[in-house]
Design a protein that fits this description.
The chain has 26 helices and 21 strands. Helices cover 38% and strands 15% of the residues.
């Protein structure tokens, strides 16, 4: 019995030419006899062959008993994908699958020339693959005929809803024939998918190939705790440690993608960036560079890398933690595809450990916790790869015998081996030194609540004091002293106690159990960095800081104790201190009148009229009324008599 008995002969020939030996569980499930011509809601893991699965079920419906498809006209099937990369990838898969049957595939995606797409649609296509926004545009312009559709496929339906394409999907489904067949494929099945299925599907059959075991059995999950300021160095060390053929690093924003790609490129890695701000041509070239191995690392956002398939992708790094379990599974599903092994590494800042534990628990993933690889671990791994390199197993060829004999005659074996090691390490970037992360509590990872650690004041009853030769005059602050001390001495901040910053020196209390390790990492002279040195004190230093009681005694005397003599000594208050003049002062000024007026050529004369008579009083403000104002009282002038107008003779 052949493995392709349920597959149409034309498509089975394409599978055999492609090297397929058997079908995956999801491909077998959609070809079962009881689900043929039924609406389907298919839930399967990423990398399980969903694209070929709906291609096979489309072929069975479109071909029937024929060996080849009829000449292309109006589309018979429509496939909707969330991103441009996934749509182009689906088109490529369907082209080789339907090539023996004479299938013609057209694409309608954003970022491409819409005129070329309309021209391809006018020439005819059996299957159309596109993104929601561009498909709606073609439907409204009338260039995409929907009357002949037999099947509509929603690939990665959950992601399209997360991206806000609900209105576009509803518009496309409403424009398609009511008797169509609707297939929904998704790695996860949230409630929004179920609501959409009830609205636009008829008696849909639920097909699930996700077993009860843990997600992605071919993927090794690692959770590495690192200090937040060391996240970039941790990512670089992970890339160096695994040395994957292809690796992808996920960031949360476009700005983070640009920044991290630039930093990795400066360290000597071949990097490409993938984000929504790039043109379709740039994104296609970036993915092709990964497939051709001209680039090793791809830094991308979730949306841009949705559904992409890189055959040699061996490592996935989460630079920014996923927001939910669906994002975690879709990110990690870029590796470990089609039976290959892969690794998914989460870079976890120390404050986000609990949130990461809940995320992994909700996704039913058992990850191995630890710290990012140190520089010594990376060098040791490089040496292991060197010794296991297949190039050492091959015997020299005839063309190489001459130079080999010349080298053996000129140099001894040790020098030749040393030169080979230097050449091997020449193109490798040096690993980064990482600050030690706080110790991880294994009991906390199992869901047990650990006891809260005591405060520093109670934890360092027998601490050892050290002195640094910097103080306030050198702008010493705990925010940069603590990381410097921890990194140089190989300790963490929980092993530090009281910190007293003086004018020219700083005293720090260190846990007595860690003091020997601290000075052994520093060396003989206690040098930390630059001109900063540390020395061990015999006992607690004398606290020269003033106490609060002394500050209160030096303060100003209470207000009640000040007598009139103290006020007299201070003198009259300044004008700004007295505040605005009181009502009595204003009345006294009004009685005195204005300052004297200076006559022409003579001394200033004092005016005899009071101020109130000199300055005319302004009439009180009245509210404005529409029309002519009305005068009240007897002071109003008599009304002017109206004069009649007579024409001039």
């Amino acid at each position: 019995m052949s493995a392709f008995d349920h597959v149409h002969p034309a498509l089975a020939r394409a599978l055999a030419e492609r090297g397929f030996e058997s079908l995956t569980p999801v491909q077998d499930a959609v070809l079962a006899a009881d689900v043929q011509e039924r609406d389907l809601v298919v839930s399967a893991q990423t990398g399980s062959g969903k694209t070929v699965a709906f291609g096979l079920t489309l072929g069975a419906a479109l071909l029937g008993e024929r060996t080849r498809l009829a000449p292309a006209g109006a589309p018979l099937a429509l496939i909707i994908a969330p991103t441009r990369e996934l749509a182009m990838q689906v088109r490529g898969e369907l082209e080789w699958l339907f090539a023996p049957a004479g299938g013609r595939i057209a694409s309608c995606v954003g970022g491409m020339d819409a005129r070329d797409e309309r021209r391809a649609l006018n020439q005819g296509a059996h299957i159309v693959v596109g993104t929601p926004g561009r498909l709606v545009d073609h439907i409204r312009r009338g260039s995409l005929e929907m009357d002949g559709l037999q099947t509509v496929v929603l690939d990665e339906a959950d992601e399209m809803l997360n991206l806000g394409f609900r209105e576009e999907l509803e518009h496309i489904l409403d424009a398609s024939p009511a008797e169509r067949r609707t297939l929904m494929f998704s790695a996860t099945m949230p409630r929004a998918i179920e609501v959409l299925a009830k609205t636009y599907q008829r008696d849909a059959v639920r097909v699930s190939t996700v077993t009860g075991q843990k997600q992605h059995a071919d993927i090794e999950y690692r959770a590495l705790v690192a200090a937040k300021h060391d996240s970039e160095n941790a990512i670089f060390n992970v890339l160096r440690y695994y040395n994957a053929t292809n690796a992808i690093v996920f960031c949360g924003t476009r700005v983070a993608v640009t920044h991290l790609a630039s930093r990795l490129e400066n360290r000597g890695m071949s990097v490409v960036a993938l984000s929504g701000e790039l043109s379709q041509s740039a994104r296609t070239h970036a993915l092709q560079a990964m497939r051709d191995h001209r680039a090793q690392v791809c830094v991308a956002t979730d949306v841009a890398a949705r559904g992409i398939d890189l055959p040699d992708l061996e490592l996935v790094i989460h630079a920014d933690l996923p927001k939910n379990t669906e994002a975690l599974l879709h990110r990690s599903g870029r590796t470990g595809r089609a039976g290959r092994k892969g690794a998914s590494v989460l870079i976890v800042p120390y404050p986000a450990r609990r949130r990461t534990e809940r995320l992994l628990q909700d996704a039913n993933i058992n990850a191995k916790w630890g710290e990012p690889p140190a520089a010594d671990d990376i060098k040791r791994r490089d040496d292991e790869r060197l010794l296991a390199d297949p190039i050492l197993q091959d015997a020299p060829s005839e063309a190489e015998n001459a130079i080999v004999n010349a080298l053996m005659a000129e140099h001894d074996v040790e020098r030749i081996a040393a030169a080979f090691v230097r050449l091997y390490r020449k193109g490798q970037a040096a690993p980064e030194d990482l600050a030690p992360a706080p110790a991880f509590n294994e009991s906390a990872s199992r869901g047990e609540r650990a006891e809260r650690a005591p405060r520093h004041a109670d934890n360092f009853t027998s601490g050892v004091w050290v002195s640094l030769n910097i103080g306030r005059s050198q702008n010493a602050e705990p925010r940069w002293l603590i990381p410097m001390i921890c990194k140089a001495g190989g300790i963490n901040k929980r092993q530090l106690g009281t910190i007293r910053i003086q004018q020219r020196e700083t005293h720090i209390e260190i846990d007595a159990a860690s003091i020997d390790k601290f000075f052994s990492n520093l060396g003989q002279n206690g040098h930390i960095e630059k001109q900063i040195y540390v020395t061990r004190l015999d006992g607690p230093p004398q606290d020269t800081r003033p106490h609060r009681g002394d500050r209160a005694e030096r303060g100003p005397p209470p207000r009640a104790e000040r007598g009139p003599s103290q006020r007299a000594e201070r003198g009259p208050p300044h004008r700004a201190e007295r505040g605005p003049p009181q009502r009595a002062e204003r009345a006294e000024r009004a009685e005195r009148g204005p300052p004297p007026q200076r006559a022409e050529g003579g001394p200033p004369q004092r005016s005899e009229r009071p101020r109130a008579e000199q300055m005319p009083q302004k009439p009180p403000h009245k509210a404005k009324h529409k029309g002519k104002p009305k005068r009240e009282g007897g002071d109003a002038p008599p009304a002017r008599p109206k004069q009649k107008w007579h024409p001039v003779d």
